[in-house]
Amino acid sequence: MSNRNPPPRPSTGQRKPSGQRTTLPPPPPKPPPPAPAPPPKTAPVPPPPPKQAPPPSKPTQPQSETSVLSQAVSLASRSQRSNMSLKKNHLIWVYVLHAALTTFAVIQLVTLRVMKQNFGLLLSPTVPSFVWLLLAVGCVLILAFVYLANHCPCNCLLAIVIVEMVVIFVNCEQWPRVSLPWMGGILVIVLVLNILLYMMGIYLPLKLLPGHVFMIIVTLCCLVITVSIYVIVYLNGNRYILRYASMVSLLYAATLILFTVTVVHQRRYEYVDRQDNVLQASILAMLFVYMIDVLSTIVRFSQHLVEKI
């Protein structure tokens, strides 16, 4: 026999409703949070400038180097002051000697003219007048290039000899024939002309003044012109043509004075030997006296032309 299912057991409580069980679906998955929006693009910030390194501190000079620099500065200032004093003394000596020699020569020329002493009548038949001028130029060359002659007392004696030679030359030419009023006028003209030339040589720019090359060229040209004039006078016999030689000589003497003044004031050379003052004073005095002869010759020939007219 088959076992039967036992009858259901009566329940005493409320019975649950029978039926099919309903199951709730699982909640949908939460969506992932949205990604944060990217920040707006901005201009790139320039990198900060590199920090400048602090300037290196100056090394402190040792005491010995500082003292050496101070000594060098003091020596430089002292040498500059000594150069200025040397230049001042040089100028004083040059112009004092120049004034003494020139005054001595002018006194002799005035005395000879007042006493009517004509060396042309006394010496020229034996010794031509130009020989005295050549001797004076030779003494200047000796004073310039001979070492022993450029020291005292030889340089002073040579300076006196140079001036005396030029005085004899002037008194052999037209100076004794100039009238007394014209004698004073010639001396004043020569003095004023020399002062003007000195001022020009001191203050004018060097570009406007004669230099070494220019003086060499002018010297050669003047020599050629003067020799040509004397040859023409010798062949022609017309002595009045010599006034052209006098004019050329006046221009050359003025140019040489301009050049000499620039050398005296050390505008061309920074250093001048302390014994060169006698040489420079002698050259200036010789040119001063020579210009007296040139102007007296021009005056005499001008008077002759006026008398003929």
TrEMBL record:
Residues 11-23, 63-73 have a biased composition (Polar residues). Residues 1-73 are annotated as: Disordered. The chain crosses the membrane at residues 91-110, 130-149, 182-206, 213-235, 241-265, 277-299. Keywords: Membrane, Transmembrane, Transmembrane helix. Residues 1-10, 24-59 have a biased composition (Pro residues). InterPro entries: MFS_trans_sf (IPR036259). This is Uncharacterized protein. It comes from Drosophila suzukii. The lineage of its organism: Eukaryota, Metazoa, Ecdysozoa, Arthropoda, Hexapoda.
